[in-house]
Design brief:
Layout (H helix, E strand, L loop, with lengths): L1 H4 L6 H19 L2 H8 L6 H11 L1 H7 L7 H23 L1 H9 L1 H6 L7 H5 L5 H34 L3 H28 L6 H34 L7
Helix pairs in contact: 2-11, 2-12, 3-12, 4-6, 4-12, 5-6, 6-10, 10-11, 11-12
């Protein structure tokens, strides 16, 4: 475990991420787009997608078995519950379970609304009944609790830790960079299409590889950060976390 907690372990995440990206690029260069895309994106059933789900699922038991923070048992349970919620929300998003469930409960609303219902314009629409709006509002609330509470609590320590070359801070920085990359490549095809740019099959395949591969990298970085936090803070009652 010294690799994750030594003085130079801040390099672990960026080096691992660069190696991961290099593998993705090598696979993209070696495999034809028609064969490559189903390996990464197949409506949740591709090999890469099916490998990513267990990684996000591992966040839940890891949060309880290896508490990533110090303090009392009550405090550790509180944060373990929050990390578990974050892992569950990641799985829900990855599988689009929230969209599937909404469509099963309110098929007419989902069919008649243009685009996804998980947007603010859905909540503002006067023609939408109250219960579907409440369903979406509750999902938004859970999502923001899972994301914003840790962000608010740890934003300053992680920012300071980045410049102090602390391992957890650097791992979370790689996690954040991966998340931003996934969002960008997810929206890029539509933005380019609206701008009149036609992507080649190879370019579309590359974006698919980076989107789905980036989500797997996010899961790996989340697990690494939690394990590093446990080894550095969770087993040291005197440390702040």
């Amino acid at each position: 475990m010294n690799l994750l907690t030594s003085k130079r372990s801040w390099l672990a995440a960026p080096v691992a991420a660069l190696a991961f990206v290099a593998v993705l690029v090598a696979v993209w260069a070696a495999v034809e787009p028609a064969t490559l895309v189903p390996l990464f994106d197949n409506d949740g059933a591709s090999p890469v997608e099916l490998m990513t789900l267990p990684l996000f699922a591992l966040i839940v038991p890891l949060a309880w078995l290896c508490p990533p923070c110090s303090g009392t048992a009550k405090r550790q349970c509180l944060w373990a519950s929050l990390w578990s919620l974050l892992g569950i929300m990641a799985i829900v998003r990855e599988t689009d379970a929230h969209k599937v469930l909404f469509a099963k409960i309110w098929p007419d609303v989902a069919a008649n609304f243009h685009g996804t219902v998980y947007k603010m314009k859905f909540l503002k629409a006067a023609s939408i009944p109250l219960m579907p709006k409440l369903f979406v509002a509750v999902f938004f609330a859970l999502f923001f609790i899972a994301v914003l509470v840790p962000l608010i609590r740890y934003a300053v320590p992680l920012f300071k830790g980045f410049f102090k070359l602390e391992p957890v801070a650097w791992t979370m920085a790689v996690f954040g960079g991966s998340a931003v990359t996934v969002m960008l490549v997810d929206r890029l095809p539509a933005n380019l299409r609206h701008a009149g740019v036609v992507l080649s099959d190879s370019s579309r395949a590359l974006l698919t590889v980076f989107e789905e591969g980036g989500e797997m990298l996010m899961a790996l970085m989340a697990l690494m950060a939690m394990l590093q936090a446990h080894l550095i803070f969770g087993r040291n009652e005197g440390a702040s976390a």
